[in-house]
Amino acid sequence: MYEEIGIHEKTIQLMKEAEQEIQLQWREIDQLQEQNSLKVLASFHKHHISEAHFNETTGYGYNDLGRDTIEKVFADVLGSEDAIVRGQFISGTHALTVTLFACLRPGDTMLSISGKPYDTLDEVIGIVENPSSLKSFGIEYEQIDLVDNDFDYSKIEKVISQKFYKLIEIQRSKGYSTRKSLSIEQLEKVIALIKKVSPETIVMVDNCYCEFVETKTPTEVGADLMVGSLIKNLGGGIAPNGAYVAGKKKCVELVGERLTCPGEGREVGPSLGMNKRLLQGLFFAPSVVASSLKTAVLTSRMLEKLGFEAEPKFDAKRVDIVQNIVFNDKEKLIKYCQGIQSASPIDSNAIPEAWDMPGYTDQVIMAAGTFTQGSSIELSCDGPIRPPYIAYQQGGLTYDYGKLGVMKAIDNIIEDHG
Ligand SMILES: *Cc1c(COP(=O)(O)O)cnc(C)c1O
Hints:
Blueprint: H1 9-21, H2 23-46, H3 65-77, E1 82-86, H4 92-103, E2 109-112, H5 122-125, E3 140-143, H6 153-162, E4 167-171, H7 184-197, E5 202-206, E6 225-229, E7 243-247, H8 249-259, H9 275-305, E8 309-311, E9 323-326, H10 330-342, E10 364-367, E11 380-384, E12 390-394, H11 399-413
Parallel strand pairs: 2-3, 2-4, 4-5, 5-6
Antiparallel strand pairs: 1-7, 6-7, 8-9, 9-12, 10-11, 11-12
Helix pairs in contact: 1-9, 2-3, 2-9, 3-9, 4-8, 6-7, 9-11, 10-11
The structure holds pyridoxal-5'-phosphate.
């Protein structure tokens, strides 16, 4: 069957061998899926989710029963006091932006302790000049880099004992960097330190790509706020857009006042018919995240067998759904992405090329033949066009489609099929 769609024998054999070698990882992923599914269902039961919650509001969106209940369900599932979950958040970046503007005031300083934040925050913070940045409002920014893929605990302790930081940002997933992603254990340790030295500092976690990959969440280990996109893990491939911010009630309220207007806050915001899709997306999310993880593990194993450097390794503990492949070769990166695109359900005939994407400094190539524009819980692969030419692959709504995509991509970079 694979040969019929143009995949060579060598790639098929490679896949078969790799699949045999990842059985242990699969069992662990299945257990994770089971645990997360139980969590989701228990919350649906607790809040008596019924057809009434699928109703929409329009206009101002007062008294949106579905929206308000969805926020309670998300809060439960994420182990948080409260959550705001809205389609009015355009993206993860937007939710992070609203959260930063909600918590910080002129004269405050924010501190990132996981190195430079995700590229799209450069202009938000003012690392790259923008007349609407936090910096333009008199909010300062400082940064402490990671050391050997871990927090610089002693430097953090020293810096936060000398000066008060209103907010500390921690980004878990690596973004377009070469570091490893940060685990819940690392988070727990550093948040304990922050809370000991500076209990009033708000700890905000960029949790993009990490939901349902580990069983504990950042707020369960002491974070005040965490933020993520619904066209990633928790949308389950069904949410049409949106993002969530979960955490301490006091902080989530501030985010609501900033997202809409002071005085109206979370009381407004029409759900416009998306309630059912948000609930259904969350319902599927444990299984979709598991498919993504299985696709990532297979990718890692297959590429390692071909002699490429894959991070994480197939048998490493995972923190997010992102799989890196270091190509050290511009053409291979491009060909791999083009292979992913050609196996996608949507726009399979499009050939991705590197372009200047808004919000990013280097040219970026993106393969995303997705149902939802830009969705990266669907199989997608991208990378900045700069050495060492790393592909960042993530997603896979089902394992079969994920596997097929990876096989096509690998087939595309194998030079000798003989
Ligand atoms: C995807 C991502 C974001 C931004 O999300 P968008 O929805 O693409 O704006 C922020 N931080 C990290 C770590 C991400 O992976």
